[in-house]
Amino acid sequence: MARVVVMGAGISGHTASTRLRSFLPKKHEVVVVSPNPQWNWVPSNVWVGVGTLEVKDVLFDLAPVYKKAGIVFKQAKVISIHPEGDKDSSSPYISVEYTEAGKVGHIEKVTYDYLVNSTGPKLNFAATPGLGPEGHSHSICWASHAEHAQKDFLAAIERMKKGQKQTFLIGMGHGMATCQGAAFEYIFNVEFEIRRRGLRDLANIVYLTNEYEVGDFGMGGMHLRRGGYYTHSKIFAESFYTEKGIKMITRAHVTKVEAGVAHYVNLADEEHKIEFDFAMLIPPFAGVGLTAFNKSGKEIKDTLFAPNGMMKVDADYTPKAYEEWKAADWPKFYQNQAYKNIFAVGIAFAPPHFISKPMKNSAGTMINPTPPRTGMPSGVMALAVAKTVASIIKHGGDQSKATFYSASMADIGAACVASAGKKFFTGRAAGITLHPIVPDYDRYPVFGRDPKLTTGEIGLGAHWIKIVIHHMFIWKAKLKPGWTLLPE
Amino acid sequence: MARGKKPNLAAKEEEILPYTQAYYTALPTGTIKWIRGCIVWQLIRFIVVNSRMISMIGKSHPHPHKPGVH
Ligand SMILES: Cc1cc2nc3c(=O)[nH]c(=O)nc-3n(C[C@H](O)[C@H](O)[C@H](O)COP(=O)(O)OP(=O)(O)OC[C@H]3O[C@@H](n4cnc5c(N)ncnc54)[C@H](O)[C@@H]3O)c2cc1C
User: Fold this and answer.
1) ipTM for the predicted complex
2) Which chain A residues touch B21 with a CB distance below 8 Å?
3) Using CA atoms, how far apart are residues A190 and A204, in angstroms rounded to an integer?
4) Any idea what the Cα angle at residue A95 is, between residues A91 and A98, rounded to 5°?
């Protein structure tokens, strides 16, 4: 009997645990440890944040789903990893602290044979003073944040109905924040909801970003084949912002958020401030703060984690200049190299470097997005790890006999559908596919990506895809009939 | 523009002034804006974009590596 412990039940963790359960015979145990009792379809938090969906529409309880599937669920947060066990036993284990009502604060050791880290990001609001729901801006990264944002957004709408002008500031809350796609989608939904109510003239909508150019999305942007040209996504994004009358501030690092004012510095060292009535600024991400100890109790955090707290895997972490970056630097199997029974997927793994070119101003402030790890790649890497771990277990733990499955971000693509309005017939969305996510200039000289699979367009058709995706992924996550046939 | 009169009008085109960033961007024509919402055409695009995504998803599946090769 083998026990696989999956830490986290977000997009990647839920994929890993449910796929493992479907691949492994019942005699093996799959355990999920996650502090949140509910699963959240994070992409639809955008719609919660403007009030077109309620928070209940993007959440469901995990316990009944896991019970039915035969997965053990512990509502707890992982604190530390002990890959060699401790002085009493050589069995590897994790230390968890319960968050479940009635057991809050209770600490338990959970032993494992294989460990999958899918703990996602820590939302590092503290990196920018005043940033976040406990400061002066909103976030839509968690469902509860989106619900809070919705309340204030609708209050701003009410003020506009009384004839007051409002400034909406949306974008990135730090020079090294990622997830530009979420801010992109949110701002167009905000614009749509305001315009739909006939209040557009009273709204000043501003996009503030750390991207060198809009349309970078933390991936250096992409060249889309359209209308007989290979056009950079900057043109595509800039056109959409301009069409909707949204002002753009690029190359910016937010230094401080005060009540109604955001201060920022840019790559040209200029310091500015902008006043707002409503702000949604995405925080930078870090690892969730796990630590690790060896058998003698010595902390070995550096062996397992990069300085940003994300887990080291089979990537090439040698520091290199941008010009020397290779697709091969990116991990294939998401396996920690010091402890080969530990894997990390989704936002929890440490990327070898950025995808966008690093930029800093003369004061040394880094102003460029860190690499995104969106839903689709997070799911695909979780599937790859689930298949690998299942194969290792089937071969009695002999890794040399097992089939390993790779899902390098330099080999897999991503589909990004950013809605601009939720209404069935008047909504629009930008539908972008790109392949691969990390440009591979050896395989695809000049643009680094497969031109046939890197495309984008705006329309109602893409919006319908977004609606289908919302229902399909919630159906799949609830393990309803046919879920195994649906892609990640 | 009168408040509430043209809820579906896209840009505040009158605010696009020469020598501002907005002036240099590509803007969709009325035809393109109409096409983006044309039900029949968008049904076709729904199928096309879906097929494109499925083909990209097919290429993004985890690749198996022979035992011992990884
Ligand atoms: C508003 C928004 C919109 C987005 N839209 C899209 C989109 O349209 N398309 C797309 O592809 N991607 C989108 N993304 C990105 C996508 O949501 C993320 O890529 C994805 O959620 C990452 O999955 P993950 O499993 O790594 O992390 P998460 O989904 O964040 O899951 C992390 C899990 O770990 C748990 N956890 C945290 N700490 C601990 C701990 N100490 N111990 C145990 N468990 C822990 C959490 O509770 C959670 O269950 C969007 C993101 C945002 C914020």
Assistant:
1) 0.85
2) 238, 242, 248
3) 11
4) 140
